[in-house]
Here is the input.
Amino acid sequence: MGPVCHFCGAPVENPRDVYRATACPSCRRDLHICLNCRFYSPGAHYDCAETVDEIVTDKERSNFCTYFAFRSSGAPGAGRGAARGADARQKLDKLFGDG
Here is the structure.
């Protein structure tokens, strides 16, 4: 299995064709983001394993980074956004009843 969207875990068929304005066909979120990049490295300088000159403050939004390369499959965080949403919904349902 190839690269997947960080937010919903949907497969990305052509990771080399991901540009700044490319959105996930499943959840419509930006794909050219730090969290989908193989160089994203929390704790490194500007959270990037590459020698970038400027910080990207919002790691979940599209950016102009020229080093962007999609993470391979099984990368940490892939689909985590969807899982967090499901967990939050379960907690709310538990707290307030499920209807």
Notes: The chain is about 15% helix and 0% strand. The mean pLDDT is 85. The radius of gyration is 15 Å.
